[in-house]
Sequence to fold (297 residues):
Amino acid sequence: MQQVKDAPALWLDDGIADPAAVDLYRTTRTADGVAGFGAVTDDHVARFKSEGYLVVEDAFSPAMVAAAIDGLLDLIDGQRPDFLDGQQVNASGIQFEAGAADLLPTLSRDQKQDVVRKLIGFVEHEPRLAAVAEYPPLVDLVTRIMGEPPVMFQDQALLKPPLIGREKPWHQDIAFFTLPADAMIVGVWVALDEATPENGCMHVIPGSHRAGPVPHFQRRDWQICDADVAVEEVVAVPLKPGSLLLFHGLIHHGTPPSRSSNRRRALQIHYKPESVARIEEEERLAVFGSEGKNVTC
Ligand SMILES: O=C(O)CCC(=O)C(=O)O
Fold:
């Protein structure tokens, strides 16, 4: 994390861009969705468990999506100072594109969003975003999948600015969490804009969660080795605004760089079963790190 003078705790993205990474996401397969929370059957829940993902279309109304975007822009515009103060302790805040530091004071509220990569910890600060993460039909569906009450433990907004939005390389989310690798961790990715392969929608490898944890390497990011990605099995998950993807914490997934002039804004929320306790950082690295495993990338 770089600190910038006169802008305390300005958090800048330091990931590595590689436009050629788009080749890791080429596919003609796209995910099907269920039409609304009310249409989710026990078979769909069983399919989530075997395939590791489920799409729910029109999960949120256009009014909820519009309110969430307004809430997001207010946070980016610095209208809730307590949100930015949280950055000092890694509790909440905004990660900007590395090239944005000097530009920021000159940008309008609308322009600023196109130099943001990520916001973390909005639930405590923005009720219009909390309304999405705490939406009862969503929490009920996550409860059905887990078989017990879920606890939200991470909430983020993930933005891909037009054309410059970077890839999020293939990974398993539990590799980033101090939670047991065999826990039923559920991620929810909510499209606020139309998400397409061109502007960087989610891509998954169906069933890949069943093979368990795989080593992650520090390359363009903390990621699965490119050579270990089952590129022939990739499924793209294009979503309309207000639709969502539920995905298992061990499913292999990633998003390509943006090649589009359309921005891609999304919310990502993670839930764990109430009964699951945290593990130590060393335990996480023993499972997901490459040290001592005789693996190369
Ligand atoms: O939205 C994105 O681009 C990346 C989402 C993702 O897989 C993650 O942040 O773990």
